From TrEMBL, chains A, B:
GO-annotated cellular components: cytoplasm
Protein name listed in UniProt: 3-dehydroquinate synthase
Function: Catalyzes the conversion of 3-deoxy-D-arabino-heptulosonate 7-phosphate (DAHP) to dehydroquinate (DHQ).
EC numbers for this chain: 4.2.3.4
SUPFAM superfamilies: Dehydroquinate synthase-like (SSF56796)
């Protein structure tokens, strides 16, 4: 269908993996590993193999699904598996799965023997629109997200809507949050288009546009020195709420659900501390409210969430820095916010579903 | 005294850390960490502080000394310490110590929050002539050396002979092996100069020349696609013998002692499979024999050593690849060697001290 080129690699859309077939034939890797979780191994691997004409000359490395397993213990296991399989520097790792698989697989590949090639095939909506661009790899430490990682580019990325058919509704909703974010920070028209779309049947065109937005930002600022920070809108509070939920809730929030909460809170902060109008705040609040289920941030967790904010990777010199909306479709970064405003933004979120 | 510039950073020689003082004043890091082992913390840290006029605005992260501690468990400990200290992306890590400290400190820094700045101050002869150039970071897994790591450049490197005064003789001898290697692979005159030098009182000029040789090779091939592999002369068998010794010997070989053994073995392989003459082989054998203590590679360990060779990072497509001398001062790479020749080279080493 289309492709996006950024510095170093190409993102292929809806090609039924045909360019991958050619690539594997030409590249002469010594060994090929497919890294998947038990879900993608069961549901996506057959699709992958069929697209590649029953391609089978690879070994599967399987892991447990879920953010709680994106940790160093699993990395050690994968490194040792690669060693057991005598993987050398000419080995290739194909990461087939959601963001946990592409983040962790990318980290393992980028550090095994100081780096082997890897390819990402994101199979969830979240991974397609978010983890597919930008060369960020990472794992969590003590439930703090992506605290350890590298900037390492895959050889290529393949985005196929066929894989989305295997994704549960709640996971589609999770990815949808990043799409909303892309509209909010840079493209009002795209945001409006999403309001009339159905996240359960998202069109390949909307996915493509979302990736194109992220790709544009990342290409301008690959190492997150400046502009790229706008992609963190909703993520400062969102990540903290997500970490808090991961460690406390029986059924934790998905990433996108947490980001949706973060966007409402940081929308409020944008109205308070930047130029987002009250009408715009209400518009985004209403859209997120009808799309995402209610959640309550317990007031007894506020302190813990503030502690988690101190570990945010965007912080500099002990100061928590936010990316805030100047309007719908425009975002600024390195914004300071008072502790009191953070608390009030959490209270604002909690009040939204009461109305 | 002098400096060497390579792509991205400068190696400063005998400056009493004055450029570091200026750098720290200008760079405005949010926090500074000095990473050291308990030995360098006791013996090198006071020298470091005195050179910087009692500089004290840093936190020390201390680890246990020795290759056996260059592992992921210690990395996790350091990552968590950085988190506890609320280190952000504008933090700096100064690695003060031998190769274990610069390798592991570099790996931790290059992966913490996807990379913070670091500076290397190698305090052993080995680290000064070997680990100071090239941007290799790494840790061991299952006693297999540097199996996990990144290519990441420090902001700067400082080499000071003052620190060598704190280094035990056996450790000086360890570093001397890499200097011999630099002569053997690229500079016959330098090799001859080393033969008349005293490793216990090595001159700053000989250290400089060694670093300059390595810098030249690494600058031409930073990612070890080709030429840089010549730096692995002596290291293919050397690393395997070292890993074997680490896991079996009560008092394991130092890195340099293992490389000295590796250079005799691979010298023999160079005579057998490349153009090194018998006289040249005998010359290098004699030099190493008078310089390094006798060691016996047990024949019951030969199989294990061959297994370890299979994990060598230079291997491609299951083939063990050696860097071999064409003559003293000239080296080729990607050389195939039979399993039988590997065994015979180990036997040759064992026979050397019998003569």
């Amino acid at each position: 269908m289309a492709e996006l080129v950024n510095s170093g690699h190409t993102i292929h859309f809806e090609t039924e993996l045909q360019p991958l077939k050619t690539f594997l034939e030409d590249a002469k890797y010594s060994k090929i590993f497919v890294f998947a979780d038990i879900n993608t191994s069961a549901h996506c691997l057959p699709v992958f193999q069929a697209m590649l004409d029953d391609f089978s000359t690879f070994d599967v490395i399987e892991t447990d699904p879920g953010e709680e397993n994106k940790n160093i213990d699993f990395c050690i296991g994968i490194w040792k598996t690669l060693l057991d399989f005598e993987a050398d520097r000419k080995a290739l790792m194909i990461n087939l799965g959601g963001g946990v698989i592409t983040d962790m697989g990318g980290f393992v590949a980028s550090t095994y023997k100081r780096g082997i090639d890897f390819i990402n095939i994101p199979t969830t909506l979240l991974a397609q629109v978010d983890a597919s661009v930008g060369g960020k790899t990472g794992i969590d430490i003590d439930n703090i997200k992506n605290m350890i990682g590298t900037f390492s580019l895959p050889q290529a990325v393949f985005i196929e809507s066929a894989f989305l058919k295997t994704v549960p509704e709640r996971e589609l909703l999770s990815g949808f949050a990043e799409m909303i974010k892309h509209g909010l920070i840079i493209d009002k028209d795209y945001y409006e288009a999403l309001k009339t779309s159905d996240y359960k049947n998202i069109s390949p065109e909307l996915v493509y546009q979302s990736v194109a937005i992220k790709n544009k930002v990342v290409t301008e600022d690959p190492l997150e020195k400046g502009l790229r920070k706008i992609l963190n809108f909703g993520h400062t509070i969102g990540h903290a709420v997500e970490s808090n939920s991961l460690s406390k809730d029986k059924k934790p929030l998905t990433h996108g659900e947490a980001i949706a909460i973060g966007m409402i809170c940081e929308g409020w902060l944008s109205h308070k501390n930047s130029n987002l109008t009250r009408a715009e705040l209400e518009d985004l609040t209403a859209f997120i409210k009808v799309t995402y289920p209610q959640y309550t941030i317990k007031s007894k967790d506020f302190k813990g969430i503030q502690e988690l904010l101190k570990s945010d990777k965007k912080n500099e010199h002990g100061q928590i820095l936010f990316s805030l909306l100047e309007s719908i479709g425009q975002c600024e970064y390195n914004c300071k916010v008072s502790d009191q405003d953070v608390i009030e933004s959490l209270n604002y979120y909690n009040s939204v579903y009461d109305i």
